[in-house]
């Protein structure tokens, strides 16, 4: 299992966090906006086709990578790019754990972080917690 990168978007569609690990190529300018638009469009199409109206987008696979998608009830969206062999159910479980652990303790409960448009996650505490979680799951 190879973890390439992670994007976290707020409810406004802003990229509030990005980190890469074993990425084969450099990041093109504006990729965060492209990834955000891509998952928004796929989620919208998925919800239009769903009988429940909530959609069912969990992962999209290309010949080169797999994009795992996770969304919270509060509107945070995550795009986790991995190799094609990553199990989708496992990735969903890890992303849910990320929001219950490092995200809640380092972002949600942080008195200096405001959940407003244009505010990004800064500081190393969240990044270190994310690395520790992914290491414990043997993803990096």
TrEMBL record:
Alphabetical GO biological process terms: endoplasmic reticulum to Golgi vesicle-mediated transport
Record's keyword terms, sorted: Endoplasmic reticulum, ER-Golgi transport, Golgi apparatus, Transport
Matches recorded under InterPro entries: Longin-like_dom_sf (IPR011012), TRAPPC (IPR007233)
Primary location group: endoplasmic reticulum
A cellular component annotation (GO) from this entry: Golgi apparatus
Subcellular location: Endoplasmic reticulum; Golgi apparatus, cis-Golgi network
Keyword Iron-sulfur: no
A Pfam family hit: Sybindin
Listed SUPFAM superfamilies: SNARE-like
Subunit details: Part of the multisubunit transport protein particle (TRAPP) complex.
Family: Belongs to the TRAPP small subunits family. BET5 subfamily.
Protein name per its UniProtKB record: Trafficking protein particle complex subunit
UniProt source species: Strigomonas culicis
